[in-house]
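User: Teach me something about this protein's shape.
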Amino acid sequence: MPTIIGNTELVGTRLRAERDRLRLSQSELARIAGVSRNSQTAYETGKTPFTSEYLGLVTEAGMDPLFIITGTRSTRVLTDEQASMLSAFDAANPTARSALLYLACSMVGRTAPVAPFNLPSTAALTDAFGGLLEASPGLVGDELARELAKRLPIILRSAEDEIVIPQSGSHGDPVAHQGDHDDDRRAAQPRRRT
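Assistant: First, the predicted structure itself:
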């Protein structure tokens, strides 16, 4: 079998980092890849180079082969959590997508997209979040965050009646936006035959 050529110690360190990212033990990864635990240890310490067949098997298990070999992350390898978030984002309507992107950028201190997009008003969101908190009085911390993540698309849909557009390039008071939203909703509905 062909072996992976390069600095086996660096490659082994990155192999271990990927195993840790997937929360697998050495024994579990060894079983998945069809090697002994001793071989797995030798690969991770850089004592022995692994084969391309091994790399293919660990890639099927969710590891990022580009990162293992080069140290550069591939953008196509996602964790289950990331895949779930992307799936939910893809399933959301355009208004919810824009709001989620704006929210995510705001939460990590990144600049939100400059292009204008529709968001529910602060009052509509406050009402929707208040309803969530009243319906779930015992939830705090991670439990509350999980429930919020689960209900966010519903909250955004229920708050769609009051749409605002953030002012381009600023986080100031949003400008009220009416008419276009109703026109979009009517245009999206199929016409009935008469």
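Now, about its shape. DSSP finds ten helices and three strands in the chain. Residues 164-194 have pLDDT under 50 and may be disordered. If you'd like, I can walk through any region in more detail.
User: That's plenty for now, thanks!
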